[in-house]
Amino acid sequence: SMGNWLVNHWFSAAVLAAWLGINIFLFTYYFLFFDRDEQYFYTRAILGSALAWARASAKCLNFNSMLILLPVCRNLLSFLRGSCSVSARGQPHSMAVPIPVPIPTLHLSLQCCRRTLRKQLDHNLTFHKLVAYALALFTAVHTIAHLFNLERYNHSQQANDGSLHAVLSKMHLQDSNKWLNPIHSNQTVSVGFTAASPLPRGHPEPILLPPLQTVEYVAFTTIPGLTGVIITLALILMVTSSTEFIRRNYFEVFWYTHHLFIVYFIGLVIHGVAGLVRGQTEESMKEVHPQRCAEFLVHKPKECREECCKDPEFGSIPAESWKWVLAPVILYIFERILRIWRARQKVVVTKVVMHPAKVLELQMQKKGFRMEVGQYIFVNCPAVSLLEWHPFTLTSAPEEDFFSIHIRAAGDWTERIIDTFQQQKLEMPRIKVDGPFGTASEDVFRYEVAMLVGAGIGVTPFASILKSIWYRFQQNDQTLKTKKIYFYWLCRDTDAFAWFNDLLASLEQKMAESGKADFLTYRLFLTGWNTSIANNAALHFDTVTDTVTGLRHKTIFGRPRWDIEFSAVATAHPRSVVGVFLCGPEALAKDLQRSCHQHSSLDPRKVKFYFNKENF
């Protein structure tokens, strides 16, 4: 129902509505302004409604260009995440002095508010893509409108019918500072007369204008035209190379092409400096108002025009894009400087482990490195590529004296880095690290009940969580808020289970020794099984341990039936707030979101499921 959907998404819906509302307001306001304001009466006489379409879309382009960099400022997001959260151990992340909250209801409200804000930060890439699509849309509108504008400029310059748009297009012949039409023609005309009009006796010889300036000429030789072509091409390349298929299979193409954003912003800032689109100046409006004087330009001879109305004067629309994007660009520059500084800090690879299914584990140490469960880092290996940085979830626990990642062969870069570490036996290749950065999984210990869902290598953030639980049981940590964890792992082949089995086995043993065997319930699903595997499992069904994993819990062949799983959790915890965490594909995310909506109660005293997904 809509009510259940709002439990998980009300704040996202509010942010989306605000963003859409601002875009609609900007477009509507400036469309009506340029379509009706008398300062642009003469400009509209040449361009018609295309002027309003071009200028309104330009305002929306500036607004969204201001936003596009903010969701990818990872350090800013980490700071904001820390500012609106309380650590899993009960201490504020960013408040020097805790605020006493004597009223339980207010305390719950603050917790809900913090959780909602953190969840919104986890949608940073979704918002980034949404803004990018808006940029593509408004770029298309802006480009098409200006193509019409160029054609109408050209048509007006060639017109010799004495119409208002034709007369306005010839005004530069009398005074080069009074031009309104940026396109000039090679038609032979007399100053102040149409080509069809007879020249009076004693009138000077006709003036030959510069060579014909076509639409193509203006588009590729003027600053607005050339920068418009360049930034449009850059945007097309960035958008088309950002598809799921390319990012998953050709990450290098996505990575390098996305750096065309530098070209985009440089082009955007200088795009309007030439001021080809002009309007009547305010001083001229006071003396030569279009309502009084427009007719004199067309129907009265020159002598009367000078006597009755002066010729209008025009000025360029000032460039504004730099005002919109200056602050976020400066912020992003500081972001990149911080990344470069952290990347220069020494990283020591202490251990390399090659797991089955071609999964490489790197254990590393770095001075001053501090992490929380579920966080991720960006990794660069100069021996593989000088410029490429790839994100990896940390699989180590905060309690360990190292941090680790697991790299699965899934593309050129991952294949090369695995081969590089396999070949280098004596000297380890150099590794650069940027991070760590927060994700949704960082909040897992803020829920009393958590459902962890991993698909394939997507289990990595939960390795960190389960390791941390193991250490907390070792230390008899009384601050652990979480009382129950349900862990679901979906894999296509049996080899993928191998590297994670030891952790689950040791966790099983430790919880049994601590008298908390019921703390963790895990279910392993083999989605790519064949008949021989199933027959072998059936033959050994009565054994204590599973034939596939060697663990006490049996492997399930097939996919989870999420309605059954969620119903069981809701029945077992009828009054709890359950955090659902996923690191996996989008199709699985949709299934889990649907289940969260269906099984959450609107009654504040009953169970609620909050969906959280890894996005990086």
The assigned CATH architecture of one domain is 3-Layer(aba) Sandwich
For the record, what CATH class of one domain applies?
Answer: Alpha Beta
Gyration radius, rounded: 33 Å
* Strand order across the largest sheet: 14-13-12-11-15-16
Query: What is the assembly state of the chains in this entry?
Result: single chain
Number of helices: 22
Helicity level, as a percent range?
40-55%
- Major sheet details: 6 strands, parallel
Strand tally is 16
Helix/strand/pairing category: alpha/beta
**How much of the residues is beta strand, in percent?**
5-15%
| Cα shape | elongated
Cα distance spanning the termini: 30 Å
Give the low-pLDDT segments. 86-110, 186-211
At the fourth CATH level, what is the homologous superfamily of one domain?
Answer: Nucleotide-binding domain of ferredoxin-NADP reductase (FNR) module
CATH fold-type name of one domain? Rossmann fold
Mean pLDDT: 79
